[in-house]
Amino acid sequence: MSQDSSTAGRPGAAAPPGEPDRDIAEEAARWDRETLAPEVEAHGEREQAFTTQAMKWPIKPVYTPADLDEIGFDYLVDSGFPGEYPYTRGTEADGYRSQLWAMSQVSGFGTGEDSARRWRAMLERGLNGIIIEYDLPTTNGLDSDDPLAEGEVCRAGTAIDSLPDMEAALDIPFDKLKHLTSVCNAPQPINLAMIIAALENKGVDPRSFTLLMPNAILIEYTCVGRYIFPPEAGLRISTDVIEYTIANHSNWVPIAIVSAQLYAARATPVQELAFSFSIAMTYLDAVLERGLTVDQVAPYFSFITGIDMDFFEAIAKLRAYRKIWARLMKDRYGAKTPEALRLKLMGSPGTMSLTLQQPLNNIARLGIQMLACVLGGGGQQMTTPLHDEAHALPSDEATSVGIAVQNIVAHETGAADTVDPLAGSYYVETMTRRMEDEVFAEIERIDALGGALEAIKTGYFQKELAKQQFSRQRELETGDRKLVGVNHLVKPEEERGIEMFKLDEDAESRQIERLRNVRAERDEAKVNECLARVEAAARGTDNLVPPILDAVKAHATHGELCNVLRDVYGTYHPDSLTTGV
Amino acid sequence: MPRTLRVLVAKLGLDAHTIGVTVLARALRDAGMEVIYSGLRQTPEMVANTAIQEDVDVVGLSSLSGAHMKHFPQVVELLAAKGAGEKLVIGGGVIPDEDVSALKEKGMAEIFTMGTDTRDVVKYLDTWWADGDGAP
Amino acid sequence: MKSARALADAALARDILAGARIIRLLDDRDEHGIEALAHLYPSSGRAYVLGVTGPPGAGKSTLVSKLIGALRKRDLTVGVLAIDPTSPFSGGAILGDRVRMQEHATDEGAFIRSMATRGQLGGLSRSTFEASAVLDAMGFDVVLVETVGVGQDELDVVELAHTTVVVSVPGLGDGIQAMKAGILEVGDVHVINKSDLPGADELERQLHVMLETEAHREGAWKPRLLRTVAEKGEGVEELVDGCFAHREHLQATGEDERVAARRAEHFFLEILRDEVSARILAFARGDAAGAALLEDVRARRRDPYAAAAALLDAFEANPQTKR
Prior knowledge:
The complex is a heterotrimer of chains A (about 575), B (about 140) and C (about 325).
Chain A: H1 2-7, H2 20-43, H3 65-70, H4 75-79, E1 102-107, H5 112-124, E2 129-133, H6 136-139, H7 163-169, E3 179-183, H8 188-202, E4 210-212, H9 218-222, H10 231-248, E5 255-258, H11 259-264, H12 269-288, H13 294-297, E6 301-307, H14 311-332, H15 338-341, E7 345-349, H16 361-376, E8 381-383, H17 396-412, H18 426-449, H19 452-457, H20 460-478, H21 507-521, H22 524-539, H23 545-553, H24 558-569, H25 576-579
Parallel strand pairs in A: 1-2, 1-8, 2-3, 3-4, 5-6, 6-7, 7-8
Chain B: E1 6-11, H1 19-30, E2 34-37, H2 44-53, E3 58-63, H3 68-81, E4 88-93, H4 97-105, E5 110-113, H5 118-130
Parallel strand pairs in B: 1-2, 1-3, 3-4, 4-5
Helix pairs in contact in B: 1-5, 2-3
Chain C: H1 4-12, H2 16-27, H3 31-40, E1 48-53, H4 60-73, E2 78-84, E3 93-95, E4 110-116, H5 128-137, E5 142-146, H6 156-160, E6 163-168, H7 181-186, E7 189-192, H8 200-213, E8 224-227, H9 236-253, H10 255-286, H11 288-298, H12 304-317
Helix pairs in contact in C: 1-2, 1-3, 2-3, 2-5, 4-9, 10-11, 11-12
């Protein structure tokens, strides 16, 4: 192996003057032969072949400058400096030295009041970002009294039926809030409108915080499946939100592509990045068609990623993430301003690595992943999932531990004190480059299929993910990959004695009662008139957000508004091909 | 002629996480079973009717949203009411221990929580089938 | 378990549970199922059997779902048989066609059954004829059969159906060249689905030319060529009308009797072939002469034809084989 690499030459790059690297390559080959080989001969190795966890890239016993030489690594081209193109080393020149990342947590359950109570406590405990999780009826665009919603209301998130619900939910100290994230892909214009209307009624300045909207519905068709309308309609609705926000709330972020969702659906890092960027470019193209320029629009795009347990794969992913975005914006779209080239990213330890078994072990996992997030530069806002998440909604105790994990990494490790500290690691740089090359190759493959929309409609993404899902499961079952508590150090009759969050079982009926009161008290004629205007916009090309804003102010409900859109666009039913099953 | 085990794999309610059913469907197929998949957002009524029309031996329910206590027992009740109470109903998803015993009391044969080895599900079904419980 | 007779009686009263069970027993080649079919068979032959075939990705399941809706609106009850392939490696199958049809799952007038091919080639499953007869005897007005759709020659459906709908779709490679010529020739009604996609006009032109150049007998049915966008429900009513026009043509010309005779013959011969070969093979396995003949073939003392002839002679001469 080393023999080969030492004679492989340097593709595409002239040998640097003095050829010092060449000596290292020869020395590395000698070391391999004389020092390593006898050791391996004597003791063997733990594994038949060492590979990275998701990509299955072979891992060499040691990396040296010869590896960088072999890939033609050029510091100024590949890394550069923090805050400068290609942003491999970070989008901020001083990393986390002037300011730590904003610390957020995902939360939402029960009625608006229930969630607000938890969110107030979270902000009191030092968080400055809230990521709102809505319940499934809300994300599916159903009112709480819809027969399909039975049993799901207030459960996996907070229930929002009408403006009074959003007002109750946003009963929080806005002076402590930096980032608000509204996780609702399919009906995002409705949630956006409700947030705007609630802020107006409360007299809160919308410029005082950043509202981040995971508004990239296309990702839902590849995995998780929280879509309502066909993909083309979903694209149009999202694009309206982007256009409206750029025009009216220039400090907000109207599209966050949740690549973490792909990661959780077992996408490899290469798939996660390539699929997400292809989806992002589909949106970008749609917005550009409305007459804006890439330098105006690209700064409004953001991404949310999940970090897995393979420490170095994770760090390489974060570094490649920034570099590829910058290259795509510059080379493909001709973006010129730094704002357009700088990736906006929110990193988070991944939920997929958390186990139901021995849940306290998850705290260790979260700590390690959080460290990877900081070392790789996981963005200006970060969050952690919580160690009991595999069981149920996070408990109060788990929320505190999650905040502590972020603070421990921030204040006790020194990881945030210098920028991109793992740059220059022969291993990390080699992997970052390979990540970059393979992501570009995958993006080109998707281009050849006709782009993200086509890849969704033909089931390409779904099939590729299904393959990964199956092989990742196999790996655990055969023991090829060890997971503590699941297939390694298993406790047979394990009692999972941790504090569990208990949902108030009456929340659903209370929510339905309020919904009925709202319907009884509003001006029905005005609601109908507003809904008719939403329908007209949906059938035509006017932006959907303004008429929806009027409608929510008249207390039209979430489900009613979605039904108007359903009537216009129809609903989406994938076939077996496009579900991945 | 050996009989082929038929299994309906169904997502109940609004939760749309399909990794569990995707992986399980493939594992059961590879174990020689016929797996019927009926898609997302199924109601208990749809699942019960589908199970009967398809004359499956086993109904596998999946829910990750926490609504399992409401939905799973409804399927068991509907099947019994429609004269198909002999079908084996199993469940999977994010299900706390205390709910597992409650669900079993309500007629669910077995609950497989997150992280279950698909081979354990295959083994469980094969054993049940070989014991003759599934004979019509 | 209920007796075969009781199951059959219940099925005749359109008991879904019983009908579903009989189909299962037949698919498993269970004697009870065969006995139940004996009771049901005299009551079959009334349903209108509609076959839907076409290449993968043509949107057949969506189209079938819309057909169910359109037929139900005309107050017709519908039984559906949706075929998917059995894995040759494991013998298992993933049957996902009904994902697209679940809006009908709670409709008492629609019965949807997924079937795995279980080794059968030709686009249908091993017991689609049997299952169709059961649904027919149960009194479903229409039996819709959706073929496997893996792109092989799926012609068996022609033997089963009164009307065969061939679905094609724009953009599948090199126009109709990508479709097996055999399938195109058997269509009574041709549908260009997803006809809002680019290439639909070109496909229509190609199909038109192909249908026009086919030899046309005086008074014979002239295949119709229609366009649908099944996803949006467009063209579905016209498709139903087209199918029923073909049915009326069959009835008016007495062709429907020929369809029935052809189906009976095919059904009978298929089963005869299965039964004969099963019986002879069982004899060959159980008889010492069979093993000796096999050894002769292996040692090249006898060629396979001569060995087969010798075995059949032994089979005919053996009084045990006369049931």
